[in-house]
Design a protein that fits this description.
- The complex is a heterodimer of chains A (67) and B (476).
- Chain A has 67 residues and is mainly α.
- Chain A has one domain.
- Chain A is 66% helix and 0% strand.
- Chain A is built from two helices and no strands.
- The longest helix of chain A is centred in the C-terminal third of the chain and has 24 residues.
- The two termini of chain A are 23 Å apart.
- By secondary structure, chain B is mainly α.
- Chain B is built from 19 helices and no strands.
- In chain B, helix 4 crosses helix 12, helix 5 packs across helix 17 and helix 11 crosses helix 14.
- Classes of the chains: A mainly alpha (67), B mainly alpha (476).
- The interface between A and B is large, with 31 and 44 residues.
Chain lengths: 67, 476
Amino acid sequence: MSRTARRRSFGALVAALLVAHAFAPSRAGAFPGLGPIPFDLGYHLVWTAVAAAAVVFLCTAVWEDET
Amino acid sequence: MSRLAVIAAVIAAYLVVVAVIGAVAARRTRANPEDYFLGGRAARTVVLFMALFGTNVTPFVLMGIPGIAYHDGVGVFGMNAAIVALGIPLTFWLIGEPARRAARNLGAITPAELYARRLDSKAVGVVMFALFFAFTVPYMATAVLGVGLAVDVLSDGTVPFAAAAAGILLVTLAYTAAGGMRATMWTNVFQGATFLVFVVVAFFVITGRHGGVAALFEQVAAQAPALLVKGDRPAFAFGRWNSWALAISLTVIAFPHMLVRIFAARGPQTLKNTCMLYPPALVLLWAPVVLLGVFGAVLFPGLEGKHSDRVLPLLVRADLPPVLQGVGLAGILAAVMSTLDAQLLTLSSMLGRDVLRVVRPDLAPRAEVRIGRLFTLGLGLVVYAVVVARPASIFEIAAFAFSGYVMLVPTLYLGLAWPRFDARAALASMAGGVVVLGAAMVPEAPPLGVLPVAWGLAAAVALALVVPRFARAGPR
């Protein structure tokens, strides 16, 4: 994957995360697969996990050292 | 041994460890500004991460956030921690690393000095110092306020609030003035570990004593179900939610004490490693404190308004054995000291390099360090005066400071990324942003449901982009 393609992929991922944060759904009950964790907390825990993956992608594939 | 004696012994042990680390660091610190203020720009991953994370975590997180979650519920996690987990690494990449590189190349030690040199304007340095000072003093006050509250609750009022605040300031002043950046970064490793371990252990012990997390969720669902959904609370309305996301994710890179620590990084890989550690560390810290605030609402009902800042110390007092209560207080002290030392050191270094050197360009390096130490003492007294006045809740004071810092972000970014961005644009952007922020804070309800920080930032961005275009036509 070229540098431009990596940057674009990362930009798209960040944009998707920002939209998912801005329009975060809210509902009663537990988040599927997270035991008793409420949906509104579970949603943002999952969001943070995806954001963490995006940060790893940033640091290993997008962020290039400049001299 | 009485409960208070056990707590005092744990705190004494904690302070001895901090003092020893500070003394060892002081021995290794040379009396030149680069070594005193930046630890020789040699911080590796663990030290840098703990220094940044420790500086980043204050009673705003350990006491202010449980206090807000007590009223607003689990949505507080998404409103703060989630967006910050992305925002901090992004801003470290876009602003932190270019600033670190430029600071090294230009020999700059403080953020104000970097931008003054970069934009070739001493006025930029002086204005930046003034704004950093104006927003850092209240932020420092939140830290000391948190200690006062914690000590007050855990000592059953035996140790007066004012004495606790004075004590924490004195100890922090001592090792910061003696050992400079190396002392603050080394002590931050121990301090960061102390409050992280405490929060995790306290969460499991407290929830365990009440039947576990699932049982507590059932209790909340029965007694205060509204805390388990964001619902239609004003704090989570679309405009507020997103403008707060803007503030909380952009403000950290504009903390002068964070930027200076980034300058102290050994290289880009160190900063990248730090970025990757941030999201999991944030979840490890924030999820427990938010949930303890929510559970506190059913375990200690009836705390009105800013009194909910006491919920974490109350839970600790009620559910942890004396040794862990002492560790809890040490954890809060650690969060305070690790931020306070960085703020004291950074402001004192900026005074020397960005103000005194403008007035006295021939100032010797040793004199600069000496004046920096004296200023640190004076600053401690100013903060103490604010703390004793107790102006508002921890969250409210911190929100004011965070909003102010954000007004500098356009200058911090464009000053490094856009060659046409000049001193006039920087001054217009910072001043315009602060004026609009202040004006937007006047009405009781935020205009159009959007927090003042968003209006101020919009003005700062607009001026930053427009002024260089007008300047193009005139003499440069």
